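To whoever is covering the structure queue this week,

Two jobs came back overnight. Logging them here so there's a record in the thread.

Job A:
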Amino acid sequence: MNRKDFLYLTGMGMGAALLQSLPVIGSPVPHDTVLQPVDNAIKKRMADVALNAAKSKGATYGDVRLGRYLNQSISTRELRVQNITSAESYGMGIRVLANGCWGFAATDKLDNDSIAKAAAQAVSIAKENARLQSEPVQLAPQKGYGEVSWKTPIEKNAFEIPVKDKVDLLLAANNVALKAGASFINNNLFMINEQKYFASTEGSYIDQDIHRLWPSFTITKTDSKNGGFETRNSLSAPVGMGFEYLIPDEKEKIQGIFPIYKKRYDMLEDVRIGTAQLEEKLKAKPVEPGKYDLILDPTNLFLTIHESVGHPTELDRVLGYEANFAGTSFLTLDKWESKKFQFGSKMVNFVGDKTRPGSLGAVGYDDEGVKSGQWDIIKDGVLVNYQATRDQAHILGLPASQGCCYAQTWSDVQFQRMPNVSLQPGKTPLKVAELIKNTEKGLYMFGRNSYSIDQQRYNFQFSSQLCYEIKDGKILGMVKGAAYQANTQEFWNSCSAICDESDFRMGGSFFDGKGQPSQVSAVSHGCSTTKFDKVNVISTARRLG
């Protein structure tokens, strides 16, 4: 599995098939399945069996995650349904500390004897692991919350929408593209419902009902004269919302050179506009390499944030404990300890967040029972913090965890995962039109595309779905093949303007990979349209000879 949104990188037409291979999928269920909550008294009783069994075997701490996961994906191509998958997974993961070391075991058999056996196995593993550990795990203090609950604030449960209605929407969008001249279109819809119950020996019993959704298409148009082709991916965002995201709302659009979407998405409009843009893209000239001022729309900049800010501020990567899928990090502890490492210009402020409504990372509590919150990571351009879990907090001298622990399913052990990491909007009123007006030589870029970044998250290259040339404050037209290159520090120090809150939008990664064995998580990155000065741009569309 690829590290980042592997579905995009391997072709959206394969999305549903690949999704089936993920361990979160579980066993097939009828497509009209909607999770009915298990009574909390039953879940508490099962959790107490595990916690008591763990303590009786010598655990000094224990936590339980009882999870039911429902996943549905619908994949279409042109006027055909390629695949519909619906699956449910249900079981319990038990994590313990014994002799100062972690142990973990899981079971899908939820009778008392099987639960107690799994708890005993977790303690046994911890004690064996302790023989190889040089120093004990240090857990940050965490109070018990008693019996509490949290739900994603959805308006329409996507699993309650008939499958036919969801299929009809995708096929209607495909039909719009084909009638407008598209050669091909793949269109997919992914939905996840996590019902998680966390309990710990510290006295927390936390029930959560979490929803996520991602609509995404790729349109292709070929040139019959020269055999060339161009593609345009959707400008939707993966969201922590229900089906209401797919109900268009004019109030949730930003009108620019074409409509851009905030908290509601108009798939039919995006397909229609995207197909028309492909004709322009086929005729567009290659960008001239050189230095440009870049105006990056959030549909493009979110991925640069993810790769150059989100991953390098994960504390386990900083410490060298984690290197899978994204390498380690150039943001070493000495840079943070100096309290003056200038990561970006003074207007650059990044916040870690697990609370923003509609975001992929929004939960009430993480998978260690830590209540969600917000904190500064980059403040006035300076590196001031990282992302930490309970057993990492002491390294930074923090009094508590930042709530960055997650496991993709009950059968996987939880570990440090990225929260939402967002660039804060500008504090003074500023619209995109003003950015364009004040740009002499620039490029205006939308949508995620190919990218590359080194194993220290330092040197990178990113491209876009759509790119418009700006000269003397006016948009001249579309160019193609533009890819911007920089290192992380010089790029963020070239940030010269950020639009205000009215332009703030979130993009994100629905399947962000990490770890070995690999796990996926979902995380959003918000920003407003942002300007960067004198960034090197190459042309990937030019041919030698």
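Job B:
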Amino acid sequence: MSRSQATFLPFSYWAISWAVVLLLLLAHAWDAHLSGPLVSAFFIAAALNYAGLFLLPLVLAPLFGAAAKRPLGSRAAHALSFTLIVLWSSAVQLGLLLDLLVFQLYGFHLNGFVWNLVTTPGGLESLGADASAWLMVMAAALVVLAANAVLLGLTLRRATGAAQRLFRVSTVVGVLLICAVGERLVYGVSHFTGRSSVLKAANAIPFYQPTTFRHAAQALGFTFSARHAGSVRAATSALAYPRVPLQLTPPPRLPNIVWLVAESLRADALDENVMPATSAFARTGLRFDQHYSSGNGTRMGLFGMFYGLYGSDWFPMLAAHQQPVLMDVLQRLDYRIEAWSSARFSYPEFSRTVFAGLPADVLHDQATGQGWERDRSNVDSLLGFIRQASSAPDRRPFMAFMFFESPHARYYFPPVNAIRKPYLEDFNYATMSLTRDIELIRNRYLNACNHLDSQFGRVFSALSAQGLLDNTIVVVTGDHGEEFMEKGRWGHNSSFVEEQVRTPLVLRMPGVAPGRVSSMSSHLDLPATLLARLGVRNDPADLSLGSDLLGAGPARTTTVVSDWSSVAWIGPDYKAVYPLRSTGLSDAGIFAPNDSRLPNAGSVRAAHVADLRTLLRGITRFHRSVR
């Protein structure tokens, strides 16, 4: 092996690898919403720059080989350099391909949420990943590794003698600097002036790291654009939750609570033809027809329905392992509490938040079998608990919670629940097409909801047969909705469109007449509603950001929905999305109630400044400032 082969990277290999990475980045052009020459030029320059940056470590591999030549010998040093180049090229290409697939399916890049999904027990299982999916990933990885190895071998063989074209470190750095300067300047100026089209284009580049000139420009006397009202900051302070001590006067007879939550249960799934048992049960209680989740994903959906707080408070509550006031009150009142999940209590981390104060032996979850099979098994156990608790000599009130998985993608169900045909029988993420198969996927989802209904029905029937309904609060809802490409996405966790954030709510309360409620309601209201029935006399604002759904106050007209890094303010005539990260400014937007983007965002925001102030007060309400 020549000295140059040990020290340098063949230009032809780098150029081909760079072209592959560039194509993977340019595939995001549709998501960048290129709206003019400047935005298009910026996006292309950023793609050129990041394609080079992602491959920059390649130039170090031959240097490691050269350094290893003396202690390892020429052959081993060559093998080390070869291996490092192939591994890094393959890792970059596979990572960007995976990012592209995730973005096309869910509307976000590989990020903290995805990392949390991968590293938390039960996380990937919650997406329906199984052995066949892992085999396909491994096969793709082997193909990419083999292709890069063959390509490097060929280019090294051809790159010999005086005609060898070598790519030196200085050349790499020089080209990247030229590509970077333009897009850095454009982004910095756009960030300062609030040019959202450029910021949105930058957001389409995976792992884009922004450069801003805010402080330098302000030091020179320039004014930061008011258009940055589209970004809000999460509270950076210590928790002050609850705000004041509890005032508790229990009623003479405490009600039992049965709380049933279904994964991905969108509002219109509660239909007579799809969920007949739940529809019939809803007629015996209160059915809320304009109900919103507190999140577009499971984490923020359940967090809001137990704490009554915005999603930005999830992170400090998780860090503190602090359970909600509602669970504190139930324990203080000596409720017999058990909970079941057909997913995992470890993902999302409900065992360290919602149920942090409960012993592990009352949290029952399992991950064997398909979702509908786990639901059936867990309902068996839940009904056994209800029989035992209701007949116990001590007559303690009980609270039973269950999280159902039947309607979670890939929407499994037994043949008896195939009420909608045809449906996608072979639901393989690698072979299905959202364009071609979405109606078949939707039918599969509705079949899964029909199975969910059968399990809800078992609980309703048992409560009725045991004469428990007269003193049991029953809550039936979903953690969030599910979109089927109505607004361009499938699933949830990707946007705040109505299909992803609307879910049914049925409340059956002892002594409350049945009916339908047409005004807006939210998961945020559930803690205040239940606490009032338990004898808590505090103003709801002391304990949460919700209201008592049975109280005498004015009907809700606005609500807030959260995801991992943003919040959406939803009012009667507009919807505003505010990122909670400084790098997420491009996610901000003003939308009509039907989720179409409003062209006059600035004037709408200016007309609703009071709403933004209310949102900020809610984000910081249960915190105290620390310096």
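Note for Job B: The longest helix spans residues 74-106.

Please reply-all if you pick these up so we don't duplicate work.
Q.
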